[in-house]
Amino acid sequence: RQRILSGMQPSAGSLHLGNYLGALVHWVRLQETHDAVFFIPDLHAITVPQDPAELMQRTRTTAAQYIAAGVDPDRATLFVQSQVPEHAQLAWVLNCLTGFGEASRMTQFKDKASKQGTDSASVGLFTYPILQAADILLYQPDGVPVGEDQRQHVELSRDLAQRFNTRFGETFVVPQPFIQKETAKIYDLQNPTAKMSKSAPSPAGLVNLLDDPKVTTKRIKSAVTDAGTEIRFDREEKPGISNLLAIFSSLSGRSIAELEDEYAGRMYGHLKVDLADVVAETLTPIRNRAEELLSDPAELDRLLAKGAAKARELAAPTLAEVYARVGFLPAA
Ligand code: TYM
Question: What pLDDT does residue 169 have?
Fold first, then answer.
């Protein structure tokens, strides 16, 4: 069996529809046919300041949403990054193989650092993609299911795998990004040319998995739409309607062409009302199940600790091989 690996930052309480459609849905599908490794990258979360109590809660909330959306902890390996020290250990080795200029060219770093002011951005934010490469390479996965915004980071992990293999001998599998074209980028409802993101200036364009359905319905109904009246998929001319159609299509399993036919001659408002229903039908059970899981945090913590033990069994041999290859003296 081929292996896949992926993770989502616990930096907001709730995941949003971009995370769900861009990644989580595909994880759940792929775990049926692949050996799957899913984790919560809490080490990545602290690259920007976090409130400790909140971080702990958000890590649990993120795990609960994975499971509520269908990640099966018996089938997949599900864990929290900080509980598997091999991530930080491999990251150090990879830091030493990455050029300063190469790291400086990572677009997410440039975006985030320019928002914070480059001087106050942490060094952790700078090396963030290298820690991500360590997350990936430790488990020797064949594929990394993510949205479009993670493509450059997966590319870096490929470059580092190849560089290590060339310099020290065949060690790492070189992973492929698994990016599903139709859902690779879900856009903000208020600003349909920007990706849906938890760091958007206003939450009005976000559909959060854990929000009250009333809030979600209101946000969908107030989504920015385009000039004209025609319901047609056209990213250039009609980014707002196209985003709604893409979301509708992926949630309902119906093709965009089918939806265009159904809504021919009807108004934007009709599409929005029906989409709000489809979203509520999808998210309500996820929200309920997540709440149920969060009502017993001790059980959730136990499950994650078990996952971490499983993960360490997979990660330790890779790290041991890396340490030996770079010339570290054996510890035992
Ligand atoms: P994060 O937490 O920003 O996003 C989690 C996943 O959701 C996808 N995504 C989207 N997809 C479509 N449309 C959107 N608007 C949208 N917004 C987010 C992301 O592409 C991602 O797949 N650096 C990673 C976390 C990470 C990781 C890893 C991922 C750490 N280590 C190892 C894979 C492998 C991140 O911040 O994703």
Answer: 98
Mean pLDDT for all residues in the chain: 96
pTM: 0.97
Q: Which pLDDT tens digit goes with each residue over 136-150?
A: 999 999 999 999 999
Binding site membership for ATP: which residues?
9-11, 18-19, 147-149, 186, 195-199
- Rounded to the nearest angstrom, the distance between the alpha carbon of 53 and the centre of ligand 1 is 23
**What would the 3-class secondary structure string for the chain be?**
CCEEEEECCCCCCCCEHHHHHHHHHHHHHHCCCCEEEEEECHHHHCCCCCCHHHHHHHHHHHHHHHHHHCCCCCCCEEEEHHHCCHHHHHHHHHHCCCCHHHHHCCHHHHHHHHHHCCCCCCHHHHHHHHHHHHHHHCCCCCEEECCHHHHHHHHHHHHHHHHHHHHHCCCCCCCEEECCHHHCCCECCCCCCCECCCCCCCHHHCCECCCCHHHHHHHHHCCCCCCCCCCCCECCCEHHHHHHHHHHHHHHCCCHHHHHHHCCCCCHHHHHHHHHHHHHHHHHHHHHHHHHHHCCHHHHHHHHHHHHHHHHHHHHHHHHHHHHHHCCCCCC
Binding residues: 9-11, 18-19, 135, 147-149, 186, 195-199
Percentage of the chain surpassing pLDDT 70? Answer: 100
